[in-house]
Design a protein that fits this description.
single chain; CYTH_domain; Adenylyl_cyclase_CyaB
């Protein structure tokens, strides 16, 4: 599957939030992301990503393992993406470390997700705040 994702800094988060709320109900979630690479940094150098994400929202937390290949479209940043749910993120961490990967960065994202259809496509529009980065961002993605 190929994911197209665009990101932008939002200057008026309240206005954007109101407009998104008119399109779809918001789902508030906290993402805890850990990105992995080999000691040589080959994944980052090649524009690939390997991530374990734990999502906390309503209900029980869920975790996913994601691999993103190199960009196939520079303008949109589209990449092939493969993702699978994992029951035990600590076990996945141990497996990845055993295979020679190490965590290179970890952070949290406060997300306000809106799922809707536009122009015949399913769209996820997310207002994002990362505590270590000032401001609010909008991420829009579709397959």
């Amino acid at each position: 599957m190929i994911e197209a994702e665009l990101k932008a800094r939002v200057r008026d988060p309240e206005s954007v939030m109101r407009q998104l709320d008119q399109r779809a109900d918001a789902i508030a979630e906290l993402y805890r992301d850990t990105y992995y690479d080999v000691p040589s940094g080959d994944l980052e150098t090649q524009g690939r990503e390997l991530r374990v994400r734990t999502i906390q929202g309503e209900g029980s937390p869920r975790s996913v393992l994601t691999y993103k290949g190199t960009r196939i479209d520079e303008a949109s940043g589209s990449k092939p993406e493969h993702e699978t749910r994992v029951d035990d993120p600590e076990a996945v961490d141990a497996i990845l470390r055993g295979l020679g990967f190490s965590p290179v960065t970890a952070f949290q994202k406060r997300c306000r997700n809106h799922h809707f259809s536009a122009h015949g496509r399913r769209v996820l529009a997310t207002l994002v705040q990362v505590p270590e980065i000032e401001g609010t961002f909008l991420e829009v993605e579709t397959l």
